[in-house]
Amino acid sequence: MLYRESLNNLMNMLHKTHPHFIRCIIPNEKKASGVIDAALVLNQLTCNGVLEGIRICRKGFPNRTLHSDFVHRYSILSADEAKASKDPKTSADAILQALVKSDKLKEEQFRIGHTKVFFKAGVVAHIEELRDKKLNEIITGLQSSIRYYNTLAECDARKKQLNAYVILQRNIRSWCVLRTWNWFLLFGKIRPQLKCGKMAEEMAKMVEEQKALEAEVAKAETERKAKEDLYNKLKSEQNRLLEQLESTKGGSASIEEKLVKLTSTKQELEKGLNDISDKLSEQEDRNAELERQKRKALQEVENIKRNIELADGNLLKSVEQKEAKENQIRSLQDEINAQDETIAKLNKEKKHQEEINRQIIDDLQAEEAKQAQAARLRQKLEQTLDEMEESIERERRIRIETEKAKRKIENELKSATETLEEMTKIKQEADMSLTNKEADLHALNVRIEDEQALINRLTRQSKENASRIIEIEDELEHERQSRAKADRARSELQRDFEELNDRLDEQNSQMQVQRELNKKRDSEIVKYRRDLDELNMAHEDQLAALRKKNNDQIAHLTEQLDGLQKAKVKIDKEKSVLQKELDDMNAQLDQDSRARVEQERLAKQYEIQVVELQQKVDEQTKQISDFTTSKGRLLNDNGDLIRQVEELEVHLNTVNRAKAGISSQLTEARKAAEEEARERNELNATCKNLQHEIGQCQEMLEEEINSKDDVQRQLSRINSEISQWKTRYEGEGLVGSDELEDLKRKQMARTMDLQEALSVAQNKIISLEKVKGRLVQESEDARSEVDRHLTVIASLEKKQLAFDKIVEDWKRKVDDIQKEIDATNRDSRNTNTEVFKLRSALDNLTEQIEVLRRENKNYAQEIRDLNEQISQGGRTFNDLQKAVKRIEQEKDELQHALYEAEAALETEESKVNWIRVRKQNYIRVWPLFRYYAHKSKCNKSDLMLKSGFRKKKKNLRSHEKTIRELSNPSR
């Protein structure tokens, strides 16, 4: 058996390779298997001339490759030379010459033949190293360019983010200013009362009216189309009858009378069309007149707007100059702040970029080291691949045994998971009890700390009150001095106030003049409104007249329609009589023509069928070839899937081994968990004892604190009594000095006793605090031990979950591969069935295509006729629609002009209100400004006060301008 196996292995090796000769060598003279005598083998090789042949080969050119293979693999070393020509021999020669020029190769190390390139020993390995270096350079360059691109994109994103931050901050600042700005709040209250927001409602009404008019136009269009269809049908019938008359060549008096009737109806219809065209021309003339009136109204409205704008410009020129300067100052301050923020952010980004560059350099060095290791590992992996192929065959035999072991382990895993769930429940209960106890301990600690804080506060307050009394006295003196200074400044501000009142009187006189001008403008606006109302009334009257005329036309057309329908009925009756006579005459001709047409049609059908059958045969042969190729491809895919299944089974075996190891670790973890549970119960008992002791200590502490408070109260009460008696006796002189000294001694003795009691209480408190600290430390130690045990349990649970996930993943992979195999088998069956279905479907489709072609030709002719009729009727309808749209546009423009005039009136009213409010603000703000200006700049001269007042005045005017702009949204 061993001999046969070794012989089979040797024959397999020979069949895989292409040897030119075979040398049989005796491994040893003992005829023992697996023993090789090195000296004997070397002697035989030298005698056979094998070693000499190897030396000769090494001195010659043992390595060789085809020109095309060489160019394909090593064109990366010199890309330009590789692309120089399409001939692989010339391109290979160019690549090698480029390597020689760069001193990477010598001309002695290679030769170029007719079909191959020959290399000496070791040259191919050197070229491979050169190729690897070139690849490393290209890949590193590509990586660096990609990183550069990514950093640029990140930089752009951060710049956008920075701009967004600046915009957000600006908007938030403006919102914070507007939230407390009285002028903006006033504007928010006034804006709902303006009429500008009602434009949307009126536009909606106009849209509804427009839709109603469009519906009426659509009805008129349908009626017109129906009449045109009747006209076309009558005309077609007339032409057909004339043809019949010519064919029969025997006209009768009845047919002539019918023709006369048809011509009369045709003339009536033509007259109706002429009337309609005359009416359309009249409507177009009216539209032209309306457009002229509209232009006149628009010119008048523009003149009004110009006058209003001139008046506003005179008022706002002085305010705009002041606002421009203030806006420049604000913008400069905002830019300075923004630049400071950007500088700080850029510094941060610079540091961040430097750190990233350092990381990139470190990563590059690490990757270069990894690539060197990868080159080494590649050689090792090529060796291990051969060993793995042999080990796969061995592991197939072991697969059946491992499946049995897998089932046993799965049962054990289920029991282990159940025990783990019970352990987690116990752990959760213990955690809940621990958290409750920790909460109780925390509450006790908080109470003790609060009581100590109260004692400290009382002592601090007594000290702070003493210091405050001294500070209040200093402040009183400072305020007396500031009052004297304020009185002096008040007299100076009174003089300035009188000067400002004189200026205000002058401005009031100017305001009265402006009011008179506004009244004149109001009267002009009223006149313009009346003119607009008259124009609107005239426009509405014209629209009503047009509607009446349209209704009359529609009624007239309906009457004509009824007459045409009656005439059509009569013509149909006469047509049926004539049709019978014609049918008898043409019956014989139809029979002869049908027989001839059928024969020609059958001949064409047979010819078409022959051509189609040939095409089907060609297509089916192509499909059969495609199906055979797909079948071969599917078989190859099936073989690959079977190999993958075998590899997955090998991986499953390794996973099962790991599972067995983890199950043993699980048993050990269970034992450790049981021991930890026992320790936890002991710790819980100690925690309960400690809590009981803490409660006792807390009660003692509270008692001692209460006694301490009582003693302090007695002390304070006695001190107050002493002070009272002392003042009474000293003031009245009732008691002598000896009695006072006795009382003092008694009080001192009593205070000493109370102080001793206090010190005893404090000592007790200190001892209790020490006991408390010891108990807290013990509880923290116990808690740390519990946490340590919990971490060990959690780590074991994580390991178990990870192992379960690995097993489930391998099971899923095996199931997926099995499903893919089944799906491929189903697809192969389905493809065979679909081939037969497609063949039958092709036959049916060819027949249907012929029928559809004929029907398409008939339908195309009918569509052409209908399109011609529709195009004739659509022209007249489009003209009507254009006239209606022109009238509606004129109406909209007139209404828009009316709304603008009303808005201008409202702006004038708001200006008057604004002037009143401005006067009140001057009176309200001036005393406040005077007080703050004196407080901040009392040491400066009167010129500085006047400049500050002017700046304040400029700010007020800028605010007034913004309010005016907000109240005039139309401008």
Automatic annotation (TrEMBL):
GO molecular function: actin filament binding; ATP binding; microfilament motor activity
Residue span(s) of domain Myosin motor: 1-132
One BP term from GO: muscle contraction
UniProt xrefs under Pfam families: Myosin_head (PF00063), Myosin_tail_1 (PF01576)
InterPro entries referenced in this protein's UniProt entry, alphabetically: Kinesin_motor_dom_sf (IPR036961), Myosin_head_motor_dom-like (IPR001609), Myosin_tail (IPR002928), P-loop_NTPase (IPR027417)
UniProt keyword list: Actin-binding, ATP-binding, Coiled coil, Cytoplasm, Motor protein, Myosin, Nucleotide-binding
Subcellular locations according to the entry: Cytoplasm, Myofibril
GO CC terms, sorted: myosin filament; myosin II complex; sarcomere
Major subcellular location class: cytoplasm
Residues in coiled coil: 196-623, 666-728, 807-911
Region (Actin-binding): 7-29
Family: Belongs to the TRAFAC class myosin-kinesin ATPase superfamily. Myosin family.
Stated name of the protein: Class II myosin
Protein source organism: Parelaphostrongylus tenuis (Meningeal worm)
Gene name of the record: MYO1_2
